[in-house]
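Closing statement on the zinc ion sub-project.
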Amino acid sequence: MVGTVTAGLPRMREDLAELYRDLHRHPELSLQEIRTAALLAERLRTAGFDEVAEGVGLTGVVGVLRNGDGPVVMVRADFDALPVEERTGLPYASTARAVAGDGHEVPVMHACGHDMHAVCLAGAAALLAQTRDAWSGTLLVVFQPAEELAVGARGMVDDGLFERFPRPDIILGQHVGPLPAGFIGYGTGPVMAAADSLDITLHGRGGHGSRPEATIDPVLMAANVVTRLQGIVAREVPPAETAVVTVGRLQAGTKDNIIPDKAELGVNVRSFTPAVRDLVRAAVERVVVGESRTSGAERDPEFRWFASAPALVSEPAATERTVAAFSEYFGAQRILPMPQVNASEDVGVFGESLGVPTVFWFWGGLETESTVAAFTEGRMDELPGNHSPFFAPVIEPTLSTGVEALVVAALTWLGKG
Ligand code: ZN
Ligand code: ZN
């Protein structure tokens, strides 16, 4: 059955590669994916989908292919790009610039490979649409915006994704990464971390740099907060658990001899279980309030949590079943078990909101031979990873493997034709 569906891939390859180069050359920031969304919606219409909707969760695209009795299988790809200046030197490298949410002009690049995700799903959708006799059930194709802001999946769910379109029995998705092209990596259970972003404002009392006694210095307060926050993972999280607290932004003041009246911090928290996530979030607030009061601040700090994604759980039994199908199709030597990844993905929001399993895997995008050598020699850190200005998958065999993996996974759950 799988072979019947993937038989059409060789004829489609060059067209998909051209779509990939086009998307790569024209990346769009999160929630600005207008051109990308229009191209993908057009692909679904051309493929003969029964229903194609745009603008779901602002810029999301949904396609429904009804093909008789059987399960509803949702296959998801994200399609937003990042504010990164591309340095790959590829002939189809991006030179795009755009105005980010904060009003600044930034370079834009598909540095996370979401263009590859979208093209592979467009290809898999077209193959399944061409071969309706080979399977039965309903295919729900979801092109999701704004994964990089961790708001896109939530936006689509809140916009009625599962009320307006068939409710899936299972959710499938994949991410390209710094593995050898042609290989698939997988984990079971929590495979990617929960992510929580936090803006903190510390209030002091400003004044002349020569008269610290008349001020409450938010710079010293912020410095203490930064070091003190590192005690949470070191001293409060059980050693067998994993968490990260990163202060990625610290801003205060305008001039050396002025003590400012406030300091701002941007904090990112990663965790894998709800218990650790709650523990760390509460500890961060406790430490910051504590430092502020210890400094004599007259006003407590302010917290703004945003961009939260739950840990991504690839449901163990469903993952085993899908990976068994991968092994059969690709050969077991091309399937690699992988450790947990501390990066995050908001795809888990879909399954969590419905209480249905998600199966999520990774696939390789780096030149096969040199990457296998780097893995063998323990030089993985030298490889360009996601979000690097040098990260761009080799088109083949990345594209074909990504299309085939989606088809194999979807057919594992759809009914037989
Ligand atoms: Zn990313
Ligand atoms: Zn990504």
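The two ends are 8 Å apart (CA to CA). With this model delivered, the sub-project is considered complete and its resources will be redirected to Aim 3.
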